[in-house]
């Protein structure tokens, strides 16, 4: 009996131990399952982490591509702007040169007109016209012809160079040669330097009254031709020269008349203590 | 450049006036800086008594021409430092060569280009 109870107790004890072991096994299993779950989650997490960098890189590449496209567009825009500005800059430089040339012409014109109108002596006016044609226009061979009021012919009043010095240029009838044609028509003629006739023939006139003609036969060796500005300058100078020539002529006429009248008056003047002469 | 002094030598009053007008368009130069002379002899007298930084001279002039003026400045006055620019006119290529050999510092051709004149003057006067 005692032996049986001891066996029962032993069995009971063993069963309890077994139950305890099973509990521990269960707890261990549960722990293993939890660890397994955690590890699986970790694996998933790690896989996700392993995938993300490539996505990020792709996204970054896409962003950079877009940025690159935008930059290329901006570069293209800036390049076109730069070309526009460069073209404008060239245009401004060109305009600056043109303005400088016009300034030069205006200065020439100012000095020329100032000089032309600073005297009332015909010879000085003619000398001044010659200086202008030589120093400002760069003429080498030229003639200044003035209309003779009595005969209506063109009389060479000033010249420089061989062609203008020729005997055939001393007197020209209206309509004779290019000089005469210009004097008759009243319009300037500009052409090439041929060595045969004038390369420029400009009438000197005040409104419709023809005063004379300037004929240029050749230019200084370093001057290849007359520019458009030279043409305008010549035409403007011609106006001033005509006015100066007429003024000096009128002044000399008035002066001559004044002297005649003064002479006449002195003859009429009653000498002191004498009789009328 | 305001304290610089220039001498313009030309028998043509028109040319002198034009040169003066152009020179006054260079920064710092006014009419007060410019002295005029009608020929070489007149210019030589002015160089003797004045203190110039630059001379612009025509070649063909009455009394004393530009070449003689340069020769006298360089040899008689022994002034080799004064810059002298000659202004040449028709058929004066030989004169220019002669002038350069006599000691001219530069030359300009008529009709004088304002841009070239300003460039030369600015170069010599700094």
Q: What do these coordinates show?
A:
The complex is a heterodimer of chains A (277) and B (126). With 277 residues, chain A is an alpha+beta fold. In chain A, a hairpin with a 6-residue loop joins strand 1 and strand 2. In chain A, helix 1 packs antiparallel against helix 2, helix 1 packs parallel to helix 5 and helix 2 (122-137) runs antiparallel to helix 5 (228-268). Chain A has five helices and six strands, in the order H-H-E-E-H-E-H-E-E-E-H. Chain A has a six-stranded antiparallel beta sheet, sandwiched between helices. Chain A has helices spanning 2-116, 122-137, 162-165, 177-185, 228-268, and strands at 139-147, 154-160, 171-172, 189-190, 200-206, 209-219. Chain A starts with a helix and ends in a 9-residue tail after the last helix. Chain B is α/β, with parallel strands linked by helices. In chain B, 43% of the residues lie in helices and 17% in strands. In chain B, helix 4 links the parallel strand 4 and strand 5 (106-109). The interface between A and B is medium-sized, with 23 and 20 residues.
Secondary structure elements and their pairing?
The complex is a heterodimer of chains A (277) and B (126).
Chain A: H1 2-116, H2 122-137, E1 139-147, E2 154-160, H3 162-165, E3 171-172, H4 177-185, E4 189-190, E5 200-206, E6 209-219, H5 228-268
Helix pairs in contact in A: 1-2, 1-5, 2-5
Chain B: E1 6-9, H1 13-23, E2 34-37, H2 40-49, E3 54-58, H3 66-76, E4 84-88, H4 93-102, E5 106-109, H5 114-125
Parallel strand pairs in B: 1-2, 1-3, 3-4, 4-5
Helix pairs in contact in B: 2-3, 3-4
Summarize this structure briefly:
Chain A has 277 residues and is of the alpha+beta class.
Instruction: Estimate the mean pLDDT confidence of chain B.
Output: 88
What's the alpha carbon Rg of chain B, rounded to whole Å? 13 Å
Q: Main interface pair? A: A-B, 23 and 20 residues
Q: Which range does the strand content of chain A fall in?
A: 5-15%
List unreliable stretches of 5+ residues of chain A.
none
Total beta strand runs of chain A? 6
Largest sheet of chain A, order of strands side by side? Answer: 3-2-1-6-5-4
Instruction: Please tally the β strands of chain B and state the result.
Output: 5
Q: Indicate the multimeric state.
A: heterodimer
What would you report as the Rg of chain A, rounded to the nearest angstrom? 56 Å
